[in-house]
Amino acid sequence: MKRTIVGVAAALSLALAAPAFAVEGTQPSAGTPPNFEQMKADHLKKIDDRINSLQAEKVCVQAAKSQDDLRTCRSKHKSEMKEHHGEMRKRGGPGGPGGQNPPQYK
Questions:
Q1: Domain range holding 75?
Q2: pLDDT per residue over 21-75, tens digit each?
Q3: How far apart, in Å, do the first and last CA atoms of the chain sit?
Q4: Which of 34, 11, 5 is nearest to 92 (CA)?
Q5: 51 in a domain, yes or no?
Protein backbone atom coordinates (compact mmCIF):
# COMPACT_ATOMS: atom_id res chain seq x y z
CA MET A 1 0.00 0.00 0.00
CA LYS A 2 2.80 2.41 0.90
CA ARG A 3 4.61 1.61 -2.34
CA THR A 4 1.49 2.46 -4.30
CA ILE A 5 1.12 5.83 -2.58
CA VAL A 6 4.80 6.65 -3.08
CA GLY A 7 4.59 5.61 -6.74
CA VAL A 8 1.51 7.72 -7.38
CA ALA A 9 3.11 10.71 -5.63
CA ALA A 10 6.27 10.33 -7.71
CA ALA A 11 4.29 10.07 -10.95
CA LEU A 12 2.23 13.15 -10.10
CA SER A 13 5.29 15.21 -9.24
CA LEU A 14 6.96 14.27 -12.54
CA ALA A 15 3.78 14.99 -14.51
CA LEU A 16 3.38 18.41 -12.91
CA ALA A 17 7.06 19.34 -13.19
CA ALA A 18 7.34 18.77 -16.95
CA PRO A 19 5.02 21.66 -17.99
CA ALA A 20 6.85 24.01 -15.63
CA PHE A 21 10.13 23.31 -17.39
CA ALA A 22 8.48 23.79 -20.79
CA VAL A 23 7.15 27.24 -19.80
CA GLU A 24 10.57 28.26 -18.48
CA GLY A 25 12.21 27.57 -21.83
CA THR A 26 9.86 29.87 -23.79
CA GLN A 27 10.59 33.04 -21.82
CA PRO A 28 13.11 35.53 -23.22
CA SER A 29 16.50 35.54 -21.61
CA ALA A 30 17.12 38.15 -18.94
CA GLY A 31 20.71 38.60 -20.13
CA THR A 32 19.86 41.20 -22.80
CA PRO A 33 20.20 44.69 -21.32
CA PRO A 34 17.58 47.35 -22.13
CA ASN A 35 18.50 50.12 -24.55
CA PHE A 36 20.38 52.87 -22.68
CA GLU A 37 18.65 55.71 -24.52
CA GLN A 38 15.21 54.24 -23.73
CA MET A 39 16.13 53.81 -20.07
CA LYS A 40 17.38 57.40 -19.95
CA ALA A 41 14.19 58.74 -21.57
CA ASP A 42 11.99 56.72 -19.20
CA HIS A 43 13.93 57.97 -16.19
CA LEU A 44 13.70 61.60 -17.31
CA LYS A 45 9.95 61.20 -17.83
CA LYS A 46 9.55 59.85 -14.30
CA ILE A 47 11.56 62.78 -12.92
CA ASP A 48 9.40 65.26 -14.85
CA ASP A 49 6.25 63.57 -13.51
CA ARG A 50 7.55 63.88 -9.92
CA ILE A 51 8.50 67.54 -10.47
CA ASN A 52 5.03 68.32 -11.86
CA SER A 53 3.39 66.57 -8.91
CA LEU A 54 5.51 68.47 -6.40
CA GLN A 55 4.83 71.78 -8.18
CA ALA A 56 1.10 71.09 -8.01
CA GLU A 57 1.42 70.36 -4.29
CA LYS A 58 3.44 73.57 -3.82
CA VAL A 59 0.72 75.65 -5.53
CA CYS A 60 -1.90 73.97 -3.35
CA VAL A 61 0.07 74.68 -0.15
CA GLN A 62 0.68 78.30 -1.16
CA ALA A 63 -3.06 78.76 -1.72
CA ALA A 64 -3.98 77.10 1.60
CA LYS A 65 -5.80 79.29 4.10
CA SER A 66 -6.05 76.84 6.99
CA GLN A 67 -4.62 73.69 8.52
CA ASP A 68 -7.41 71.69 6.88
CA ASP A 69 -6.37 73.04 3.46
CA LEU A 70 -2.79 71.90 4.13
CA ARG A 71 -4.02 68.42 5.09
CA THR A 72 -6.07 68.28 1.90
CA CYS A 73 -3.02 69.20 -0.19
CA ARG A 74 -0.90 66.56 1.52
CA SER A 75 -3.50 63.80 1.24
CA LYS A 76 -4.04 64.60 -2.45
CA HIS A 77 -0.29 64.41 -3.09
CA LYS A 78 0.05 61.17 -1.12
CA SER A 79 -2.79 59.56 -3.06
CA GLU A 80 -1.11 60.53 -6.35
CA MET A 81 2.16 59.01 -5.16
CA LYS A 82 0.38 55.80 -4.10
CA GLU A 83 -1.20 55.62 -7.54
CA HIS A 84 2.19 55.97 -9.23
CA HIS A 85 3.64 53.37 -6.87
CA GLY A 86 0.84 50.97 -7.77
CA GLU A 87 1.46 51.48 -11.48
CA MET A 88 5.14 50.76 -11.02
CA ARG A 89 4.38 47.55 -9.15
CA LYS A 90 2.08 46.39 -11.97
CA ARG A 91 4.87 46.94 -14.50
CA GLY A 92 7.28 44.91 -12.42
CA GLY A 93 8.93 47.55 -10.29
CA PRO A 94 12.25 49.25 -10.90
CA GLY A 95 13.95 45.98 -11.84
CA GLY A 96 11.11 44.82 -14.07
CA PRO A 97 10.22 45.51 -17.69
CA GLY A 98 10.96 49.09 -18.69
CA GLY A 99 12.79 49.83 -15.46
CA GLN A 100 16.27 49.79 -14.08
CA ASN A 101 18.24 46.60 -13.59
CA PRO A 102 18.77 45.57 -9.97
CA PRO A 103 22.33 45.84 -8.63
CA GLN A 104 24.52 42.79 -9.12
CA TYR A 105 26.19 41.67 -5.91
CA LYS A 106 29.29 39.52 -6.01
A1: 36-94
A2: 555 555 555 666 779 999 999 999 999 999 999 999 999 999 999 999 999 999 9
A3: 50
A4: 34
A5: yes
